[in-house]
Amino acid sequence: MLTEADVRRAIAGAQTVVVKVGSSSLTKPSGHLDTAKLNALVAALSSAALMGARVVLVSSGAIAAGFGPLGFDSRPTDVATQQATAAVGQGLLMAQYEASFGRFGVRVGQILITAEDTIRPQQYRNVQRTLGRLLDLGVVPIVNENDSLASNEIRFGDNDRLSALVANLVRADALVLLTDVDALYTAPPSEPGARRIAFVPDVVAALDDVTVTGPTSGVGTGGMVTKLEAARVAAVSGIPAVLTSAVNAGPALMGDPVGTAFAPVKQRGSSRRLWIGFAANPRGTLVADAGAASAVRGGRASLLSAGVLEVHGDFSAGDPVWIDDEVGTHLAKGLSGFDSEEIPQMLGRTTVQLRRFLGEEYAHPLVHRDNLVLV
Ligand SMILES: Nc1ncnc2c1ncn2[C@@H]1O[C@H](COP(=O)(O)OP(=O)(O)O)[C@@H](O)[C@H]1O
Ligand SMILES: N[C@@H](CCC(=O)OP(=O)(O)O)C(=O)O
């Protein structure tokens, strides 16, 4: 069992670290950038980068920095205005980061990700390769969701979960979640009797003992709920995490006992399969018969069309789908090998039959086991 000291030490020694900062830590309630806060954060991150750490910054704040300059009194609530606001705010945010990191001679590069893009294997590899190359070049990648183009049904919305996924993608050694509260508390800090939690040895078990709410700042989106989800994703990916306020960024990176440290609960898994499991928002369903369901449940089996009874939804090859059993229980998420309209003619057919009747290009699993994650 890892102790708090072990986890803090692991964070201090991290070669690659993903730091996520929330809107409330970068902006003013009026909807403008708070340059003093941003500069203080950049000073802490630059010193880690200059000491040789590979730092990825996942930064929110596009919408929160854009609504003031556009003349709005508060964060817009309709999607079109949010997307337009993000387009304005993202530019302002990057201009400030560039100037601020530039004072330390640190170069930055912008990566905007949509959930949709990254589910596809090809895009996933592109993101991974670009981030890796930026880090090799000594650049601090600054990642945000591509809010202006993200479609509403399939978006991260908050950057907390995105940061845990990015931590997987770059095989980070630590995840640092920076917000406007100094730590995780047993209940929202405004509640009397809420106590600070310094160390969470098992985030899955701890979730039962804390009360959390959504955002309270008026500019953030996820609140503590999504931060704990990010800490959980990191923990089950074998990545230690720390959650604290943005002003504690420096001490947190140095392993000082600030905020809340989360121990990893398992060894690192395959980043790609984790990505499918956590990020993918299924577009349809493949219903497996009893035999296929038990093969899928057993792990390491592909889903063959011979064992699939029904297909639901409208999706393309490469899109995420649910694999359900006959009573509708979700067994797994996976990336479909075929478009939804191609599948009906394949149902119930063996690989030999597919090859004979439909041709070689159909003689493949509906979902290959490398693209399948049990739920
Ligand atoms: N149990 C809890 N411990 C700490 N903070 C909590 C808890 N439950 C809710 N919160 C609230 O979550 C807020 C942080 O979420 P949010 O406003 O989305 O921040 P960010 O913009 O940094 O993502 C804190 O200001 C705090 O009021
Ligand atoms: N991508 C959005 C982030 C939304 C948001 O507010 O996130 P967070 O402050 O991390 O809860 C933006 O840049 O405005």
UniProtKB/TrEMBL annotation:
EC numbers: 2.7.2.11
Alphabetical keyword list: Amino-acid biosynthesis, ATP-binding, Cytoplasm, Kinase, Nucleotide-binding, Proline biosynthesis, Transferase
Enzyme class: transferase
Reactions this protein catalyses: L-glutamate + ATP = L-glutamyl 5-phosphate + ADP
Domain of life: Bacteria
GO BP term, pick one: L-proline biosynthetic process
Pfam families reported for this sequence: AA_kinase, PUA
Pathway: Amino-acid biosynthesis; L-proline biosynthesis; L-glutamate 5-semialdehyde from L-glutamate: step 1/2
MF (Gene Ontology): ATP binding; glutamate 5-kinase activity; RNA binding
Binding locations of ATP: 20, 179-180, 221-227
Binding-site list for substrate: 60, 147, 159
Compartment annotation: Cytoplasm
GO cellular component: cytosol
InterPro entries: AceGlu_kinase-like_sf, Asp/Glu/Uridylate_kinase, G5K_ProB, Glu/AcGlu_kinase, Glu_5kinase, Glu_5kinase/COase_Synthase, Glutamate_5-kinase_CS, PUA
UniProt entry tagged with the keyword Kinase: yes
Domain PUA: 284-367
Family: Belongs to the glutamate 5-kinase family.
Function as written in the Swiss-Prot or TrEMBL entry: Catalyzes the transfer of a phosphate group to glutamate to form L-glutamate 5-phosphate.
Name used for this protein in its record: Glutamate 5-kinase
